[in-house]
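Service request form, structural biology core

Requester: graduate student, group of Dr. S.
Request type: structure prediction, single chain
Budget code: on file
Notes: please return the result as structure tokens.

Sequence provided:
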Amino acid sequence: MNELKTLLTDYLKMHNLTRNTFIQKLGYKNITKGLRRLDAFIEHPKNNVFKAQLCKQLDISIESMDEIINKQMDLIIKDKIKNFTPRIWIKWKKYPLLLMMDDRDLNHIYEIEIPGSLLNLPIKQQLEEVFHLYKQHQLDFYADKFNFKNYTELVSITDSILKKGLYKVWPVNDGFTYHKAFNESYQFNRLGEQINGVNDSNVSEAAWNYTTNKPVVNNVPDVIGY
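Core staff response, request fulfilled:
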């Protein structure tokens, strides 16, 4: 149950207010914009400015609001954990232009699906299979532009593109992140070498922002080979 939504509903009934009138009381002249922010906050309460506005209007303390918000965020995290789907996220140096994608699925340019059977393997084998999927993804992506013999040749030529700065007009990526679990990620460069640390932009937003511990980065072999 969303306690924040219940709190607001009860307040409106008690004071015989419509949502539109309530938004105006919060100081919004643009009612549509105000309602949009209200609904967004109710579902994902992370806007501190809006929180302060609500506390003042509802006449409750910041501490009481934080308690309600923490309960709501716990529900959000549990839901995300339950519905989390493992994936490989491609880190492009320069995002591919739409005109270069032809009729390919946009999501496929950035994400690689993980076969369910892969998760049953020991972690070292998982990472080897993940790197294999990444290499095949790259070969498939460039297939209609270059006829690379293998991944080694692809790396050699795209390295030249990087050194000459041509990635500004031609897509080349920096590697990939394997999101194994909601708060467990493995980050690698294009050669399969693990990158120390985790960039928060490559980790689930909820995992990063709404847990007390930062995402788990496990110790794995430095190189998984290519």
